[in-house]
What does this fold into?
Amino acid sequence: LTEPLGGSDVAGGTRTTARREGGNWILNGAKRWIGNATFSDWVVIYARDLEDNQVKGFLVDTSLSGYSATKIENKIALRTVENADIVLDNVVVSDDFHLKGANSFRDTNKVLKVTRLSVGWQAVGQQLAAFDVARRYAVERQQFGRPIASFQLVQQQLVQILGNAMSSMGMMVRLAQLEDAGTAKDEQSAMAKAFTTARMRESVAAGRNILGGNGIVADYEMAKIFSDAEAIYTYEGTQEMNTLVTGRAITGISAFV
It folds into this structure.
């Protein structure tokens, strides 16, 4: 979905195009940050239909002529994922691979609703990992002749991490229940993603702080948790965009340009 020049504004600004030619579609454009697109056999590409100006989804064979993917290098977060820049140069896709339920950005929002839910759970997991690493370190690390876990301010930070994690988990459990019941709404997933990732950012920062200088060394685990949290905070809608989606639902007034 994301493009080199389009992230938050792709709903109305998708630049990748799809043109119908008989029983085929011709795709042109570029995508960015697409996970594992360097080695995937298939990718889902969203493109704007030149005829009706609606965003449609296509399943694209990565061996097709005109398709290329280049790994994005030098990431500090989620390094296990090979995010890629994709170029589509007159890629011919059979209409059989047009996703029949993906005919507008409204349809795309159905996907985002679910993926935001999954990112909320990732934020919970990051906080629990931060708590485990920080607590173990605090109990084992000695300063002034005793474990740093014995100091009030360290305990306060551990409690903050755990409280953030538990509140995030409670929200996600309720959202999962609504999703199972088929009653979850876009704005609920947006709020959950915004809330849990904000709490996650606080939690991993507190965890890194407890480890002091060792918190920026990968050997102590917290540095990876801290770095990965930055990617989770951003993808599937930024903090600002998810907040505005929720705000629109609360007020009935859109703050989007």
User: Anything to note?
Assistant: The first strand starts at residue 17 and ends at 21. The domain at 10-97 is CATH 2.40.110.10 (Butyryl-CoA Dehydrogenase, subunit A; domain 2). The chain has a mean pLDDT of 94.
